[in-house]
Automatic annotation (TrEMBL):
<dbReference type="Pfam" id="PF01199">
    <property type="entry name" value="Ribosomal_L34e"/>
</dbReference>
<dbReference type="GO" id="GO:0006412">
    <property type="term" value="P:translation"/>
</dbReference>
<protein>
    <submittedName>
        <fullName>60s ribosomal protein l34-b</fullName>
    </submittedName>
</protein>
<dbReference type="InterPro" id="IPR018065">
    <property type="entry name" value="Ribosomal_eL34_CS"/>
</dbReference>
<dbReference type="InterPro" id="IPR008195">
    <property type="entry name" value="Ribosomal_eL34"/>
</dbReference>
<dbReference type="GO" id="GO:0003735">
    <property type="term" value="F:structural constituent of ribosome"/>
</dbReference>
<dbReference type="InterPro" id="IPR038562">
    <property type="entry name" value="Ribosomal_eL34_C_sf"/>
</dbReference>
<dbReference type="GO" id="GO:1990904">
    <property type="term" value="C:ribonucleoprotein complex"/>
</dbReference>
<keyword id="KW-0689">Ribosomal protein</keyword>
<comment type="similarity">
    <text>Belongs to the eukaryotic ribosomal protein eL34 family.</text>
</comment>
<dbReference type="GO" id="GO:0005840">
    <property type="term" value="C:ribosome"/>
</dbReference>
<keyword id="KW-0687">Ribonucleoprotein</keyword>
Amino acid sequence: MAQRVTIRKRTPYNTTSNRRRIVKTPGGKLVYHHLKKPGTAPKCGDCGIALPGIPALRPRKYATVSKRIKTVRRAYGGSRCGDCVKSRIMRAFLVEEAKIVKKFIKQQQKPGGRK
């Protein structure tokens, strides 16, 4: 007959927050080890992929780790992925270029403008 294992927490229900694993101790007894929930990685705000370079931790664990672990050293470091940052920079540059071109065309069409 199999050895009985007692639950160490008060909640007996099989929920995601109450996952456990049977482990044999060096003394030969079987005990439950309660497992923590796996963390999810922070996602990019634009495209939704997991941010590379930032570990997947539980929310309260981010409060205890240092800032260099929570971000990457780039503009929008802990918030957007590199591809989205690149596209934002390109978009901003092209918008500024379009403004300059529009201003130049408007100046050309003036009667007293350059020829």
